[in-house]
Known about the structure:
Elements: E1 3-5, E2 11-13, H1 17-38, H2 42-45, H3 47-61, H4 68-72, H5 78-92, H6 109-134, H7 140-162
Antiparallel strand pairs: 1-2
Amino acid sequence: MIKTSLYSGEVISKNSLLIDAMGDLDELNSLLGILRSKLEAADTYGIRNIQSNIMNISSLVATNCTSKMHKDLRKITNEEINVLLDMQTYLLKKVVLRNSFIIPGDNGECSAEIDYVRAVTRRCERKVVALIEKYTNDLLNSQRYLNDLSYFLFILARFVEQNSYLLISL
């Protein structure tokens, strides 16, 4: 069996659920970085802050929940969830959501890329749910954040589709 170490030092199989979740969160953060580099006003959308929160979730996953280190890690707070919800509310006032399925790519490359980031976010959320069920409830706010992030990204993709510009001012 091929093994690796968690941040807290425990050695586990590279085939474990923890390592799988860490890889998905790393992929999500990388995709958010690509998205941030393409959006004209990425800071306006809070993408950098979102990436920081994904790093916090990753550190929680990478640290054994029974270790002393885990207790000292920064967890996702209700305030950070509310910031995401506020951004959703803001964009919802500026976008028309249609009652139909969306086929990524029909309305441009950028919105399709956002839809891809959203799909990876949903995969990360499923992995975090599995971790909650197997290890700890300590990730409940992380799961909620990922769920709200996927909806925010859905709205952002529709906003980008419906606007020829990417600059918004909050």
